[in-house]
Every structure is written in structure tokens, then in C-alpha cells.
């Protein structure tokens, strides 16, 4: 097994697995606030993990599990459970060796798990160590990594350290990098490659100075400068000889991957470059999407949503512009300051090409989301509702079309007498927050009378079933389904029991779709999420063209992210 230890983002090749280490005491990311931590990413097995796991899946096109995210809470819980069972035979349990050994054993076990359905043990495992060298929280993990380097053996462990090169008065400064490398070395880690984040290409003198003072060769200093798109960063690394350096350092030419895999990787790599460089010269038309949310002060709260829109924009050959609309500002206000925000929010939404309402929790800003869904529905503007976004669309329809004026969700109902068209799922534990939602990969079945559906055509389903990842506590109240459908709101997708509403779509509308699941979690650069693709294509006035392309495409047996992604694991 080959290990690549990094601090920061990375992309690599062969059959690759990845592990993210988060030195916080939480067992997982499920209970963390989006405003503090960014989005919670959900895996097939229902694991609620750090958003970086989403980056790994998107770039490497692999399916990870909750085991690929290590937290201090998980490790300490594991060690304490073992101590309670008597596994340590009465010895004093300490950070070294028990915690550090547990970390290494966890990594070695997970690194060998075959990725997806290949049944192939990965050649390389990328380990991202979160936090900063010197943090108290990270110290057990740093010690474990120094031990793992020795344990793995020569040419089986590579340490990539990411540093920042500031520019002051026009001069690139290397002192921060020198100091951080010194701290890394004093902690026991020896960087084999220094990845320098910078706004502009590194000067030759800067590279030579970093190499000289950090005791590496010039070719071991790689510049990761700002690029027009994050998807062009792998191309930048390739141009600097990053791949030969990896192969040489880890002796990858001796790995078991076949020439067929290498050729396959090159073919997909060419597709990647063609797609990601399409708008390099700025000639693409712009499509503007109004993202109506409640956590917009931290854009990472909607990271997977943003990535899905980017994937679809590249597929549609459009330049993406996201307009961030605070849903609270769509609600009427009294003060002059609030009134200005109110008018600006409505202007931004009404002038956008499409309206997207993503997921979320709590009642803040909900009425703004409801009126956003109502406006898009009544004005023929493409609309996509994700999870909560679907629920507010149902609430609007119940109020505006069905005449249920007090329609709301059980999550928001503050008084008795409200009509809860959205309710708690009966199996949900209301007392415990962590890990109690409906989580992970679950089937959705298109209903027999939904052949007209614009969304269904994009999925290219063979048997009417798709698989998407879920994360929710509430669902459409079954008692109102018949009334809603009689009024024209079609539930084209239901769960495998036929009782849980998964997809809504309006027939006579350019694109009005709501999904209970989170399709953004399975979106890929070369295989965009279907709900997002249809939404963005409709917003860009190219839905018919994209639907035709999807019908002719052979990418994936079902055209569904969960069932048939293109294999890009050979990068």
C-alpha cells in the first residue's frame, strides 16, 4: 500500500482511496452548524462527514464510506470501548501507543477496502490531515503519521505539505513557508513535496530559495496558483511534472494496474481537459441562477450544490453566475434598511434565469422560500427544490392552489390548528439529533403515468428506479397527497413502498421539479446530476438539446449517478 499524506486538497491516479482526518471531538459532522463548518456531506452508507469527502468523490469518482472520515471522537470512542471490554489486558491506556496505534490500524484497514465494485485493493491511499501543525488537537495524529511512515517502509509514504506564498509590495515572501516546514520537521514529518498556494506563478528565484532553505530539490516545489476554475488545477499540476514526480517517489510503475487502465485514464483525462477548458477564452453565454437560501453568508454551506451547478454549466457550455439571495430578505420588512434589502432580493431573484431553493433546517427564512417557489411557479421560471426546497414548494401549492391557507410543516408550526402538509417521519427519533435522520442511498421509483416527465427522460431509467442519497427528517404528509395530486401537483417519484413522496413535477411548466433527496452528492464533472442538469439546461434554454444528448449517450447503464457513473478512477 502506498500512502500520500497531505494538508489540503489533492488529486491523484490509479485505483485510489482517500481518508480525511478531522481532529475534532465530534463523532461525525452531522450535528455541526453549516454556518460554522460548511455543508455536511452524506455518503451512500448514510455517513455524515466533512465536506472534503465530497471533493474526493467528485474528483476521484469513487464511493467512500463513513470509515473514510476519522475524527478524534471516533478514535477515542473506539479506544475507550476496547478498554471497557478488557482488550488492553489491564494496561494503562495512553495516547501513545494506544491512540496512535488505533489511528494507524484504522488507516491501514480502510486503505485496503476495494473502491466501488472493482474488487481491487487500491494502489494509493490519500490521507488529508486537517488542522494546522502545532495544534494540540492534531498532535496524536501527527505522531501517528510519523510512525506510519516508518511502518509503511521506503517508497511507500509521501508527505505533501501545502503552504501559502504571500506577495508583499510585489515580492513573493518565502519566510512563512520556511517556518512551517521547520515546524513540520520538528514534529517528525519530512515533506517530500511542497505545494505552494499563490496568486501568480512562482518566480524562479522563489522556487530556488524555498528548495534551498527547506532542503528539497527544485522539482519538489510545486506552484498551485489561482486558476479560472478549480477544475483546471489538475491540468496545472500535470504541466509541472507532478505525475512523474509521484510515480518516481512512490515507485508506482511497479504497481499492479494494467496498461488498459492507463489508456483508460488517458482517454478520460482528455475528456476532462476538453470539458474544463471549454470556457477558458470567455466566449460562453452566461446563465444566472438565484440560490435562495438561509446560510448564504458562508457559501461552503452549499458546496455540493455549487459544484453540481458548475458541472452542469460545463455540460451545457455556459458560464455560471450564482446570485445569492437571503430568503429572509424576500419577506416583507418595516424599516427602510430592510425594505432596501427586500427590493434587492426580489430584483435579484426575478432577473435570474432560474430559481433554486436548497436544503436546510429551522423556520428562519421559510416564508421567503415559499414565496420564491410561488413566484417561479406562477411566472414560468425554471425552479429546482432540494429537500426543504421541495417541501416549501408543496406548502405553497397547498396554500395557493388547494386553498389550504394555513398549510405549513410540522417543523415550523408554532400554533395548533395549522394544516401540516409536511410531517415528521414516523421512524425518526425526535430526542436524539446525531445520525437519526433518513440517511444514505435509497431507491426512488418513477410512477407508471410519468413518462411525460422531463426529469425522467434525463435519467434514462430502464426499470423506473433510481438511487440517490437522502438526509431528512420530514416528508410530505400522506393524508394530503390525493388532494394535492387532484389539484395538479404530480408526485412522479415515490419510495419503494409507494408511501413516501420523493419527486414532484409540474407538467405544463418549463421546469418545476422538487426532490426529497440530495442529488448534488452524486454529481460528477463528467456525469452531472440529472435534476441539476435539467434545471440548468432549462434556465439556459437548451433543455431539448441536452435531453437529446442524454438519450444518445452511453455514459452509465442507467444514466444515474448512483447506478452508472463513468469510471474516472484511473486519473
Automatic annotation (TrEMBL):
PROSITE patterns: GATASE_TYPE_1. Gene3D superfamilies: 3.40.50.880, P-loop containing nucleotide triphosphate hydrolases. InterPro entries: Class_I_gatase-like (IPR029062), CTP_synthase (IPR004468), CTP_synthase_N (IPR017456), GATASE (IPR017926), GATase1_CTP_Synthase (IPR033828), P-loop_NTPase (IPR027417). Keywords: ATP-binding, Glutamine amidotransferase, Ligase, Nucleotide-binding, Pyrimidine biosynthesis. Residues 552-571 are annotated as: Disordered. Pfam families: CTP_synth_N (PF06418), GATase (PF00117). GO terms for cellular component: cytoophidium; cytoplasm. The keyword DNA-binding does not apply. Residues 298-530 form the Glutamine amidotransferase domain. Its EC number is 6.3.4.2. Residues 12-251 form the CTP synthase N-terminal domain. It is an enzyme of class 6 (ligase). Signal peptide: none annotated. It catalyses: UTP + L-glutamine + ATP + H2O = CTP + L-glutamate + ADP + phosphate + 2 H(+). Pathway: Pyrimidine metabolism; CTP biosynthesis via de novo pathway; CTP from UDP: step 2/2. GO terms for biological process: 'de novo' CTP biosynthetic process; pyrimidine nucleobase biosynthetic process. One of its GO terms (molecular function) is identical protein binding. It comes from the Eukaryota. Transmembrane segments: none annotated. NCBIfam families: PRK05380.1, PyrG. Catalyzes the ATP-dependent amination of UTP to CTP with either L-glutamine or ammonia as the source of nitrogen. Belongs to the CTP synthase family. This is CTP synthase. It comes from Rhizodiscina lignyota.
Amino acid at each position: 500500500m502506498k500512502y500520500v499524506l497531505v494538508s489540503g486538497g489533492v488529486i491523484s491516479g490509479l485505483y485510489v482511496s482517500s481518508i480525511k482526518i478531522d481532529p475534532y471531538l465530534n463523532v461525525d459532522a452531522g450535528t455541526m452548524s453549516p454556518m460554522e463548518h460548511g455543508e455536511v456531506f452524506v455518503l451512500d452508507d448514510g455517513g455524515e462527514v466533512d465536506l472534503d469527502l465530497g471533493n474526493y468523490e467528485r474528483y476521484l469518482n469513487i464511493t467512500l464510506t463513513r470509515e473514510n472520515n476519522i475524527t478524534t471522537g471516533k478514535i477515542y470512542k473506539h479506544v475507550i470501548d476496547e478498554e471497557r471490554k478488557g482488550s488492553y489486558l489491564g494496561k494503562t491506556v495512553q495516547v501513545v501507543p494506544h491512540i496512535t496505534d488505533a489511528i494507524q490500524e484504522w488507516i491501514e484497514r480502510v486503505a485496503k477496502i476495494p473502491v466501488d465494485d472493482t474488487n481491487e485493493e487500491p494502489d494509493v491511499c490519500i490521507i488529508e490531515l486537517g488542522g494546522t501543525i502545532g495544534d494540540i488537537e492534531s498532535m496524536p495524529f501527527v505522531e501517528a503519521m510519523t510512525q506510519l511512515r516508518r511502518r509503511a517502509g521506503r517508497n511507500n509514504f509521501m508527505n505533501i505539505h501545502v503552504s501559502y506564498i504571500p506577495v508583499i509590495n510585489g515580492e513573493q515572501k518565502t519566510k512563512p513557508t520556511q517556518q512551517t516546514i521547520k515546524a513540520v520537521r520538528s514534529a517528525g514529518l519530512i515533506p517530500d513535496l511542497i505545494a505552494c498556494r499563490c496568486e501568480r506563478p512562482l518566480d524562479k528565484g522563489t522556487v530556488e530559495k524555498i528548495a534551498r532553505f527547506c532542503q528539497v530539490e527544485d522539482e519538489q516545489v510545486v506552484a498551485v496558483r489561482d486558476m479560472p476554475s478549480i477544475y483546471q488545477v489538475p491540468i496545472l499540476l500535470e504541466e509541472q511534472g507532478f505525475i512523474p514526480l509521484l510515480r518516481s517517489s512512490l515507485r508506482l510503475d511497479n504497481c499492479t494496474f494494467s496498461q488498459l487502465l492507463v489508456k483508460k485514464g488517458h482517454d478520460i483525462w482528455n475528456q476532462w481537459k476538453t470539458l474544463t477548458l471549454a470556457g477558458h477564452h470567455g466566449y460562453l453565454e452566461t446563465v444566472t441562477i438565484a440560490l435562495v437560501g438561509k446560510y448564504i453568508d458562508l457559501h461552503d454551506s452549499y458546496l455540493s450544490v455549487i459544484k453540481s451547478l458548475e458541472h452542469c454549466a460545463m455540460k451545457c457550455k455556459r458560464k455560471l453566475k450564482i446570485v445569492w439571495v437571503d430568503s429572509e430578505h424576500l419577506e416583507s420588512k418595516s424599516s427602510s434598511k430592510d425594505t432596501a434589502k427586500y427590493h434587492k432580493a426580489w430584483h435579484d431573484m426575478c432577473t435570474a434565469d432560474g430559481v433554486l431553493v436548497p436544503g436546510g433546517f429551522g423556520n428562519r427564512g421559510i416564508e421567503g422560500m415559499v414565496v420564491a417557489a410561488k413566484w417561479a411557479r406562477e411566472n414560468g421560471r425554471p425552479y429546482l427544490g432540494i429537500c426543504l426546497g421541495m417541501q416549501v414548494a408543496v406548502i405553497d401549492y397547498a396554500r395557493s392552489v388547494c386553498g389550504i391557507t394555513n398549510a405549513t410543516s410540522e417543523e415550523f408550526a408554532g400554533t395548533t390548528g395549522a394544516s401540516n402538509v409536511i410531517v415528521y417521519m414516523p421512524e425518526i427519533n425526535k430526542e436524539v439529533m446525531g445520525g437519526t435522520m433518513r440517511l444514505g442511498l435509497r431507491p426512488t421509483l418513477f410512477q407508471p403515468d410519468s413518462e411525460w416527465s422531463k426529469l425522467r427522460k434525463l435519467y434514462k431509467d430502464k426499470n423506473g428506479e433510481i438511487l440517490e442519497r437522502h438526509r431528512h427528517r420530514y416528508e410530505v404528509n400522506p393524508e394530503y397527497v390525493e388532494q394535492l395530486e387532484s389539484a395538479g401537483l404530480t408526485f412522479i417519484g415515490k419510495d419503494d413502498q409507494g408511501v413516501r413522496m420523493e419527486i414532484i413535477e409540474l407538467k405544463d411548466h418549463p421546469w418545476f421539479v422538487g426532490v426529497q433527496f440530495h442529488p448534488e452528492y452524486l454529481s460528477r464533472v463528467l456525469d452531472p446530476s440529472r435534476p441539476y442538469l435539467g434545471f440548468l439546461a432549462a434556465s439556459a434554454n437548451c433543455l431539448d438539446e441536452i435531453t437529446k444528448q442524454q438519450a444518445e449517450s452511453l455514459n452509465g447503464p442507467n444514466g444515474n449517478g448512483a447506478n452508472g457513473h463513468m469510471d474516472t478512477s484511473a486519473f
